[in-house]
Amino acid sequence: MPVYAFNMRSVDDILGMIETLGRLVGAEAKASELVAELEAQIAATRAIAAERIAKTGHRPRVYFEEWDEPNITAVRWVSEMIEIAGGENIFTDRAASPLARDRILADPLEVVRRDPEIIIGSWCGKHFRAEHISRRPGWSTVTAVQNGQMHEIKSAIILTPGPVAISEGLPLLLDIFDL
After folding, report:
1. What are phi and psi of 138, to 5 degrees?
2. Which end of the chain has fewer beta carbons closer than 10 Å to its terminal beta carbon, N or C?
3. 88-121: per-residue pLDDT in tens?
């Protein structure tokens, strides 16, 4: 019996998985329709983000934290969605690392040095606590902390590499970036 496993790491991987799964289960038309809807949503989000950036000349600096102890930065598809929604992931240099252990911050003060304007927490299995962020040593000077721009997106929405990350996660990012 054939076994299929998917290991999506990017927005394109998510869309490709939907198409492949549609072919595997004989639902190619439905899969193509879903991919077209998600691609349209991505394009619309890019357009809204581009309009905001054109008006302000600014992309908000974003720190996305998958886990708090140790601090783990955003996986690739989340980083890509931050960019699509008009933000700038301050750790885009780490996003391509597929393993969480490779996205652990050895020095949490690196966040302070990169000074994000927005912090998004999505801690798998537990609620994000903004008060924990603001109490971290040295973090009181971070722009996001000073301005109260600390938000949670449930991990089941954005850290699951499937349609929901795009259909529900992308609009949440767009709303958060509407400063």
Report:
1. 85, -10
2. N
3. 999 999 998 888 899 999 999 999 999 999 999 9
Dihedral sign for Cα 61, 158, 37, 3, please.
Answer: positive
The label of the residue with tokens 């054109």 reads: 54
Instruction: Give burial (CB, 10 Å; 0-12/13-18/19+) of 131.
Output: exposed
- Note whether 83 and 26 are within 8 A (CB): no
Residues 23-34 have a mean pLDDT of 96
Nearest C-alpha neighbor of 156 from the set 134, 133, 125 = 125
List Cα–Cα distances, 62 to 8, 54, 88, 119, 147, in angstroms.
Answer: 23, 18, 6, 6, 13
How far is 179 from 164, CA to CA, in rounded Å?
24
β-pairing, 118-121 vs 61-68, is parallel
Q: Compute the distance between CA of residue 80 and CA of residue 96 in angstroms, rounded to an integer.
A: 10
* Structural domains of the chain in order of their starting residue, each with its CATH number: 56-176 (3.40.50.1980)
Please say if the pLDDT value at position 19 is more than 90. Answer: yes
Close Cβ partners of 141 (under 8 Å, ≥ 6 residues apart): 112, 115
Tokens of 20: 């492949």
Determine the Cα–Cα distance for residues 155 and 81; give it in Å rounded to an integer: 14
